[in-house]
Amino acid sequence: MNLPECKNLLLNLDSGVLHVTFNRPESRNAMTPELLAEIASVFESIRESAVRAVVLRGAGGHFCAGADLKGMMAGGMKPPAPGEADPIVAMNRSFGVMLRQVSAAPQVVIAVCEGAVLGGGFGLACVSDIAFAHAEAKFGMPETTRGLPPAQIAPFVVERIGLTQARRLCLTGAQFRGAEALRLGLVHESFSDEEELQAKLKDALSQVVNCAPQANALTKQILLNVGKLDMDAVLDDAARKFASCVRGPEAPEGIAAFMQKRAPKWAQN
What we know:
By secondary structure, the chain is an alpha/beta fold. The chain has helices at about 35-45, 70-75, 85-105, 120-125, 155-160, 165-170, 180-185, 195-210, 215-225, 230-245, 250-260; strands spanning about 10-15, 15-20, 55-60, 110-115, 115-120, 130-135, 140, 175, 190. The mean pLDDT is about 95.
């Protein structure tokens, strides 16, 4: 596996866990087209790799403050000429493409939310499998207070916390701290310092590696199909995935390990 070279990301692969750090601390890790492209490239490079989990975090104490509005405005606001593609549409849509890519990654994606978790950062938290929030992290979607809709983020927010809460947050631009993010179900656990975070991260990763990689990947696909396909189609697809696992290498090993009271091979790396 060859990880791409990145200017805006720090990458560290350790024992099957890829730590991806957004590295634009001078802007609280605000999203640029270049940063979006690098995230997409990293997730594409690991799609069929042995990476078991991805930990997303921001440098400088902030997760991500959303889109780099200064850079967007500097690009000019003139409408495209007749017959030309609209660059603003393309730029905005690319963010949704990246969110779907992160959401559907076969790996377990863990978000460490601290400092600013706003706009696009909020969206990334919503597509993670596991999210930890610092008690003092600031969450919110301030787009409407800037005269913009949270266009690519809103659908993922609805999926994460439900339509009722998404309406309130999107239409008020309200900001809140980690405790409220935990109450809403946006994140799964909170932490107050680095020591507590590392303990919780270690525990979560140890649980992840106890799960078979292919079984986890297929389970994510089943979960993400719910509400998007007819329920019978979801269950038919799930039955086929179950059969493929029964006949694959993981189930025989996992069942044998259970019977023999030992750890399965994938948990021994």
